[in-house]
Each structure stands twice: as structure tokens, then as C-alpha cells.
Amino acid sequence: MSAGMLYGGDEIGALVFDGGHYSLRVGYAQEDTPKAEIPAVVGIGEDANGMAVLEGEAMEVDEKKPDPSSINQSNKKYYIDTTSLCVPRQGVEVASYMKECMIDDWDVFEKVLDYSYKKIIQSESEFHPVLMSEAPWNVRLKREKLTELMFEKYSVPAFFLVKNAVLAAFANGRSTGLVVDSGATHTTAVPVLDGYVLGQAIVKSPLGGDYISMQCTKYLEENDVDLSPSYMVSGKEAVKEREKPRWTKRRNLPEVTRSWHNYMVRKVVQDYQATALQVLETPFDDKIVANIPTVHYEFPTGYNQDFGAERFRIPEALFDPSMVRGNTMLGVSHIVTTSVGMCDVDVRPSLYGSVVITGGNSLHQVQNNTILMT
Fold first, then answer.
1. pTM for the full model?
2. How far apart are CA 114 and CA 150, in angstroms?
3. Measuring CA to CA, which of 249, 317, 324, 354 is 20 to 30 A from 160?
4. Cross-referenced CDD domains, in alphabetical order (predicted)?
């Protein structure tokens, strides 16, 4: 929808906001990649001056355009984006504005949009039409509230909400296909037919990047790996493989909150996850894994180790959940077959013949044929 003007072509600076539970991607529609990827969590602390402040490279609210949402939050200070968020500060809590891939905390989300326009786009919002992605199960009430926000607060000339599964299909040159989206909180199979999502056939599983991170944390803690984040480390000594790390703790650290510390520990685990983990192109087999070279990884404390079979076994739970004791959730292959099975029989060949893999959790070198081979 638009405010009465017609837009088309590459001459307009249309913006794209692609949000997820892990991050928000912001950029121009004409470009191949986003200009920035902002974490979907924000640091929230108390401001001693009694002013509502956004901080991302020392950013403050524009006094010429006061934010109405700050009336009841005049003592809050917001730390947005990685550079500002990862600095240890006393009393700063980390909170996400997303829940089930839908916007849940609108006040925090507005602060992120303010930061995006002022620090990333560096332009007034009324000059740029906006395309924003949404989860296929987003509810009408949230769509209406988001549309109202974009027109009334940001005065955008045009605004369009589109299902992220449809965007993923179009990005791969397909109007019909099965979009398998493996993100932070869940993995979904979403059938798309002629540019429309078949909502009744969407299948979700809570197996996602956060689940893999949880399994990584469990494995590392069982093996007594020190997961102290880099903000705690003042210095470290070189040690041999699997030798206990020798490091000194940074002095005069502020009293950080548990939520912020846990966020920094999670970043350590996610870095290990992105560096070491890999999925086989065939179902997990100890004999095959034994012949694959190990990967060396060093943690912020200096502890280092070569990782072999475990770096394949952990993500294999996405495809074979029974590898984790007590896990009865659907694996990726069952999600796919269940979703396609809920569609009309005439559509199924087109869906199976056009599977699109997307989502941050799919970056673990997952091959498309792995899905149908498990």
C-alpha cells in the first residue's frame, strides 16, 4: 500500500527490512546484499540523566523528533548493534523484541528502526518506500500495527509486507517450491504455489540454530571446556592441545547482568558452531567420519582442541533427532514429507522438484540432497 503515489523501477531508493529471531537485515532493494545485519537483541540499561537515549556508536534520540514511546521509559538507555551491545556495562539487560519470529516488544523494535534510519541508511524515512518480510504465520493484528507504525511515525511513501518464504522462492527464480527455512528458533517447511503460501501445509519443528547451540554447550561443558567470553580475558598463555588454559581475568569489570553474560557466552558457542560444525552429505556414519580431517579450534581463554566426530554428530540431530536421548521432535526430512503430504497430490511433484534451503542455520554446509537422503 502507498500514500497515493506510484513507484516502480530501479530509480527509487526502496528499503528492505528482513527480520528474524537472530538478526535484522537492512539494505536497499537494488543491491545484492544488506548494508547491515543488526542483532535482534538490544541492551537496555538505566540512564542517569533521565533521558531516553539510543546508543550505537554514541547515537542519541533526535531532539527535533521526540519519540512518543519514550514517555513512560524516560530513564531507559538502549544499546543497539554489535559494537555497542558487546561492551560490558553495569546493569544492562539483554532483551529480544521478537517472539516466534513475530514482533513482540514494539517499543524496542521502534528503537531499532530509529537506529537503522539514522546510522545505517542515514536518510529520512519519508524518502524511501519500504518492503518488510514477515513470518508466514504472522497474525493480522501485528500486521496492522506495523503498517500503522510505518505510515504514522515514519511517514513512508509506500509500504509492503510479504511472506519471507515467498521472498526466498523468488530470490531463487521460483514462484512454486518448498521453502525449508532453518533459523535460530525453529525449522519450517513452507510450500509456495504461484507466489502464495499454502498456510494449511506449514510444518514447524523447534530444531534450529538455538537447539544446536544448546547441544554444543552441553557437549563442551561435559568436557570441561571453559566458555569464558573474551570480555573477561585480560591475557592468556599459549598451551598445548587439551591442556588446561592459563589466562588472567580482566580487572575492574563492571557488575554485568546474567542475561548479558549469557548472551556473550552464547556468542562464544555460536562462533565454535559456525567454525567447526559440519553436516555429512550422507547419513551419519562413524566409519566415514573417522576418515575426515579434524578441525582445530581455540577458545577465548586459550584452550584449544582438534574436533572430529563430534562436529558432525551434533548437527546430525537436525536430520535424525533420535541421536539425542529423549528427543521425539520431527527431523528435517519428516518436516518436508509431512508438509508436502498435506498439499494437493497434483502439486507435490512441483514442490519436491523445487526445494529452496534458507535460514542462517542452513550455513553449516548442508547439502540439498542431504534432506531427501535421511
1. 0.85
2. 11
3. 354
4. ASKHA_NBD_Arp4_ACTL6-like
In the structure grid, which three cell numbers stand for residue 271, read together? 562462533
Residues (pLDDT < 50) of the chain are 9, 50, 57-73, 366-374
- Of 154, 83, 161, 143, which is closest to residue 113 (Cα–Cα)? 154
Question: Counting Cβ atoms within 10 Å, is residue 82 exposed (0-12), middle (13-18) or buried (19+)?
Answer: middle
Per-residue model confidence as pLDDT tens digits over 119-128 = 999 999 999 9
Q: How far is residue 227's CA from residue 135's CA, in Å, rounded to a whole number?
A: 33
Q: Are 36 and 93 in contact (CB under 8 A)?
A: no
The CA distance from 200 to 140, in Å, is: 16
C-alpha cell, 191: 510450500
Beta bridge partners, 93, equal: 44
Amino acid at 297: Y
Q: Please give the Cα distance from 195 to 177 (Å, whole number).
A: 9
H or E element at residue 288: helix 286-290
Tracing cell 582442541 back to the chain, one arrives at: 305
